[in-house]
Amino acid sequence: MITFTLSAILIIASISLPFTKSEPYEDKEALLDFIRNIHHSRSLNWDTNFPVCFLWTGVTCNSDNTRVVALRLPGMGLRGSIPSNTLSRLSSLQILSLRSNGISGDFPQDFSNLRNLTSLYLQSNKFTGSLPSDFSVWNSLTVLDLSGNRFNGSIPPSISSLNHLTSLNLSNNSLTGEIPDINIPSLQQINLTNNHLTGILPNSLMRYPSSAFSGNELSSQIAIPPATSAETPIPQPARKPRGKLTEPAILGIVLGGCVVSFAAIALLMICSYSRGKNDGGLPTTKTRLKKKKKKDIGGGDGKSNKLVFFEGCRLAFDLEDLLRASAEVLGKGSYGTTYKAALEDATTTVVVKRLKEVGVGKKEFEGQMEVVGGIKHENVCPLRAYYYSKDEKLMVYDFYDRGSVSVLLHGM
């Protein structure tokens, strides 16, 4: 009996040992300290009994699951200041996205410990105070977005030390003073609109569109447009990178990536559901236009439209992330176009489809999505999220590298 018990213990220990080694306990505790000390209105599945690298929403680990390298919590209803000595303990963190929350207070001083950051997204929050004086500690940064906050003071000249920076957005703050000489050859996009900047525009920034500096009191050899709305988008470079979709096109991405062409199955179900409610299948073009026009007059789709994720989904991004994603067309059909969308964090790839000419109301569309999202089968790719607006209906699925019928049949 004793021998059997000892053998059982050894077997259990040998099975659990690999998981023990691969669990980043220090990072896990740092994340728990963070979420326990900041208000959040959206529930997270950050359970101490779950492995952080596999089941925690918004968390991505390195290849051997020993450190957390990305944290993406956009639109999670985070409010209040970031607790000190929490996220700053994630020393291997490369991507941090806390966009579109209600985070307030000063820029966390202990973020200087995050020396491996490559992308920092803190836009659309309520940060106040001055910007960090020394940006050189983040010498690997490629994307810095602090727009839509309440930062004041001047722009630190140390930003010029970010030699790998490709995108800088400080728009819609209360920054003052002159713009430093930001001469970064790799910088493709810059947006300083709607601040209180004064003085002469540096020669190093003359190569960017004048609209990137509108809403300030600058003087230069080029005409600076007057202030526009607080939602001025970051300007696009003169030549758009190949493979990037424009906003109207990327807005439509949705569906697909199913092992057995689940797109056709889902759409057939939607069509059948619509026939039962409309007594005649899909509406004609004229009928559809009339319905759309009536809905426009009636006030549209509500206060805001967001991606709706199904329970258990570990994905954590928003529509803005999709707008910035590089995309590849996977296929076109009678009901829309399917895309492979690689988010700019370089760790998340999804398949999305834009449903065209779907003349249904929001409640009906949501009901249909709930039906499709409830399908559970080993050969069916589950629906992860959907999006509804007056002009766009999107469906989001996981991406499978070898997930097409052609690959299964021909091995290519």
TrEMBL record:
Q: Does Oxidoreductase count among this protein's keywords? A: no
Protein location: Membrane
User: Gene3D superfamilies from the entry?
Assistant: Phosphorylase Kinase, domain 1, Ribonuclease Inhibitor
Listed binding positions for ATP are: K353
Report TM segments: 249-270
Indicate where this protein is primarily found. Answer: membrane
- Xref: PROSITE patterns: PROTEIN_KINASE_ATP, PROTEIN_KINASE_DOM
Q: Name one GO cellular component term.
A: membrane
All residue ranges annotated as the Protein kinase domain in the record = 324-412
Keyword list, A-Z: ATP-binding, Leucine-rich repeat, Membrane, Nucleotide-binding, Phosphoprotein, Repeat, Signal, Transmembrane, Transmembrane helix
Recall the GO molecular function terms of this protein's record: ATP binding; protein kinase activity
Q: Does the keyword Hydrolase apply?
A: no
Q: Which residues form the signal peptide?
A: 1-22
> Mind telling me what this protein is named?
Protein kinase domain-containing protein
Organism per entry: Linum tenue
